[in-house]
Amino acid sequence: MGSVYRARDLETGHTVALKVLTLDRPFDLVRFGREATLLAKVRHPNVVDYVAHGEADGVHFLVQEWVDGVTLADKLRTQGLTVTEAVGVAVGIAKALEATHAHGIIHRDIKPANVILAEDRFDRVKLVDFGIARLTSDAGVLTRTGRLVGTPSYMSPEQARGSIKLAPSADIWSLGCVLYEMLSGRVAFDGRSPAAVRAKVLLDEPPKLSPLCPEAPYDLIELVRAMITKDPLKRPASGQSLVARLKAIPASSEGPRRRVGAPEAATVAMPVRPPRNTVVDEEAAGCFVLIAPVDVDVPAAAPEASIAKIAVRHHMDVHVFDDGSTLLIAKRTGKAAAIEAARAAIALREEVPDGAVSVFSRSTEDSLADAIDRGTLLLERGMIGTLFGDLNGSDEPVVRVDDVIAELIGAEMPVITTVDGPVLRVARRAEAMIAAASGEQAALEPR
């Protein structure tokens, strides 16, 4: 949205942070003004101070307190934190949330990059960047795309779904992810792409924290677990209650500092993952469809009503994410579910001529995270094909499938082997074969 400069206040002589808006669309002007208005409501030691905002010679600006220090993100990458330091930082962020929530403000983007440790001290925490904050009383959604925004690895499940009605519990979730990262040296929810991260936030759990941080007290492990539970009603109710619970954590012996992105302490070589089991358990394989628009500025991959109809027809549950991507999960397992998922994918691909669709599985040897990452990789290949297919003469729409899905549906559907792996061709002959395989009489319109 803008650039931030170190500046001098001519009235007071103080050093300040001057944020200048570099975009001038009506949407950006409104959001920039809202950031200033919300920030001006809060005066708290753990929230960056508002100084002034306005417009001069067509330039919109926001002046804030200048904070000498480092971001928590930089500290995690370069040094890491002990358990005691992590709890201290979490208390500071929780106090900031207590103050903002008291004014009805949801920050919506709590993450290490938006936390500054003033003077590089763990007891001087400043929460910054209210660019996407909003009041809980806001009825509408103020984003360019008409959907919610945030950073996928720290977004609550309700944010990932694009929910309009958010409560303070959304910020509690984000702080839980930050606390998990400070203690473990790992991002709680990570993946190959934003779509993969959103799917994991909604459906998966991060690795257990206690083996990653054995020196952490049991009460702290349980508090983090409660903060990142999927159900908002089961998280700590407010910043105030969170501060009390954090302060009640018993002192722990100092352990190692765990840097985010650092190699595992016991790792001496890149681990080699064992090959996938070539014997497919037809009864146990879970089946998924992932669909996304190629144009990130057009989030609606397909009308939600159309997706819902296709999902019902093919016995799948639907999870729509805030960026326009959608995950469908087969209610059943095995070969029949794989065929239904493939048919649903072809129908969705026809709904999204400028999008990409992948069908992937979760076999008994897979974690859900592994399956989602594999499906996302297939989706990325599909996006490349959609973007550049006309350049290499292969612009016929396809659905990408993984090896297990290909094996399960190969005898029933037109699976084609390519250099990039198996695909389903979305063409008239494919539709005819699908109809014949299912025993349905379909009236095909000319393409």
The structure class reads alpha+beta
CATH superfamily of the largest domain: Transferase(Phosphotransferase) domain 1
Order of helices and strands: EEHEEEHHEEEEHHHHHHEHEEHEHEHEEH
What is the radius of gyration? 25 Å
Helix content: 25-40%
How can the largest sheet be summarized? 7 strands, mixed
CATH classification class of the largest domain: Mainly Alpha
**What average pLDDT do the residues reach?**
81
Indicate the overall shape: globular
**Count of domains:** 3
Determine the strand fraction and express it as a percent band: 15-25%
How is the CATH topology of the largest domain named?
A: Transferase(Phosphotransferase), domain 1
For the largest sheet, list the strands in their spatial order.
11-12-10-13-14-16-15
The number of helices is: 14
Q: Would you identify the CATH architecture of the largest domain? A: Orthogonal Bundle
What is the total tally of β strands? 16
Which spans of ≥5 residues are poorly predicted at pLDDT below 50? 139-148, 264-279, 428-436, 439-447
What is the CA–CA distance across the termini?
Answer: 43 Å
Describe this entry's structure for a reader.
The chain is an alpha+beta fold. It folds into 3 domains: 64 residues, Phosphorylase Kinase, domain 1 (2-Layer Sandwich); 179 residues, Orthogonal Bundle (Transferase(Phosphotransferase), domain 1), CATH 1.10.510; 153 residues, Alpha-Beta Plaits (2-Layer Sandwich). It contains 14 helices and 16 strands. A 7-stranded mixed beta sheet has the order 11-12-10-13-14-16-15, with helices on both faces. It has a 4-stranded antiparallel beta sheet with strand order 1-2-4-3, covered by helices on one side. Helix 5 packs across helix 8. The radius of gyration is 25 Å and the shape is globular. It starts with a strand and ends in a 9-residue tail after the last helix.
